[in-house]
Design brief:
This protein has 164 residues and is of the alpha+beta class. It has one domain (40-154). 38% of the residues lie in helices and 36% in strands. It has one helix spanning 2-63; strands at 69-74, 77-86, 89-98, 101-108, 119-123, 126-131, 136-142, 148-154. The strands form two sheets. It has a five-stranded antiparallel β-sheet with strand order 1-2-3-4-5, covered by helices on one side. The radius of gyration is 28 Å and the shape is rod-shaped. The N and C termini lie far apart (94 Å).
Amino acid sequence: MKEIRSRSIGTFFALALFCAFSACMLLVLMTGANVYRKSLTANDERYYERTALAYVKTKLRGGNIAGGVSIEAYGDGDALVLSEEIGGTIYKTYIYTAYGAMREIFTEEGFRIDPFEGSVIVPVGGLSFEFADSGLLKMTLESTGGDIIVSYVSILDGEEASWD
């Protein structure tokens, strides 16, 4: 009888130890998964921030002509407007935010298109533009997580550029 009881107690402690080990392992796995998820979310957010700013800077460098950069109210706030003449017709590229994303529309001057129709570039919380000092454009980007990033880009202010 003592041998059976001793085996029962030994089995109980082995089972209790196994359950405690399993619970600790599950806790470590859940903590690791949570850290990994947060890391991915932060990486995605930083990617969207860098992509949005690089996209605007690239557009400015590609279409930066004297007097061709302006700011107009459009979408959920201000839009950066790049004007260019193609075949005697003036076209405008609008870069703006609407419905939680940075968007772009390319249209002939005078046409107003619903902001929803623009091509989605990346999700952002907000994007605003303002002219800073002579020849500088200030871009303020709010990420989807609420972080604020400010960047400055040199633009042509009525004179030819040299990208040397």
